[in-house]
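chain below, 430 aa
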Amino acid sequence: MTQLELARQGIVSDKMRQAAAGTGLDPEILRQRIAAGTAIICHNNRHAHGRPLAVGQGLPTRVNANIGTSKDDTSIDNELAKARVAVAAGADAIMDLSTGGPIDEIRRAIIAETDICIGSVPLYQAACDTVVKKGKAIVDMTVDDIFDGVVKHLDDGVDFITVHCGVTRSTVERMDREGRIMEVVSRGGSFTVAWMAHNDAENPLFEHYDRLLEIVRPYDATLSLGDGFRPGCLADATDRAQIHELILLGELTQRAWDAGVQVMIEGPGHVPLNQIEANIQLQKRLCHGAPFYVLGPLVTDIAPGYDHIACAIGGALAAGAGADFLCYVTPSEHLRLPDAQDVHEGVMAARVAAHAADIVKGVPGAMAKDLAMARCRKALDWEGQFALALDPDKARRLRAESGVDDGHGACTMCGEFCAYKIMAERKGAR
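prediction:
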């Protein structure tokens, strides 16, 4: 049985206990939320050394790091370095989005490198196999090619797969009638739209959705229902195509649940600050409370080089409003393939957003960390501050670079005029 089916029968599984550990959530409460579909456990039965990851209602906001090759950089070593950096920085999951080089070898190496949750987009596999191995165009993929890609990734132990099941001919028509500046910016979404146009056929992942569910169920992997029509700029946010796709994903969620398959929903994208909360509310309502996995959202289009900051702003707002899983954006977004340092910065920015949201959501233990930090700062307890910092190494390095060698002294911002010291002296004079 799948974790969803076990939960519905009132059984708290070993995976549920393991996934609940350290979250502050009782395993029985987690079971109830899995049964209701408002929480999931990401773990493929074939991922032998992988740790189950709980995502959803009442749980800490999770952070994902995207890595993967392109045609211009096919180094396995580079991707493994990024994987190690992501894990060290505190990412909860890694998605391998490789489209260049020996992608099977790369995916398997990444899975072997770490025990954290792994995601992928099997459609990239089908596209690459069609172009590289068969010498054909992406639009010449067959339906079997697409499903063979799904099986290959699940066999390798991928815990959650992005599938663009809501990219349909009717949604394309709505997009075309309303008009968009950037149309489809999702890579998998664009592959699907081009395939449908060339073959004059419906999206196989939508038309043959029951086949997909039959494939996924034995692995107990999670379907991450992709947002092929996510807005790629602020002007396209919350439009007809995006919402129509979301309506379809809500319907597909129920069908997956009926088949015993766990689901999360992927979301935008580029969204103005004043539309983010509404987007979260729409997803939760239309998709029946299923966990929401958002890319950003980025709150401005004009911050290349700083898109990780734009992402953190939107991510904090989205998670505070109920999003459950934040996909990071790196400083290289829109510019190049990220390197290891970009991965570190992207993960840290997303973790700041996630923690800020967890305080708002009342996640157990979140506010306690900030209270502890305040006490350490007041006492000029630098080791205590480093221990509590999201990025202890950077905090320690910046402190050391100031040239101050007194472990209990003030920082070089205020020196002898340190407010903490003045207030401590005031108390001592009483």
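The chain has 19 helices and ten strands. Strands lie at 39-42, 53-56, 62-67, 93-96, 117-120, 160-163, 222-225, 263-267, 292-295, 325-327.
thats it, cya
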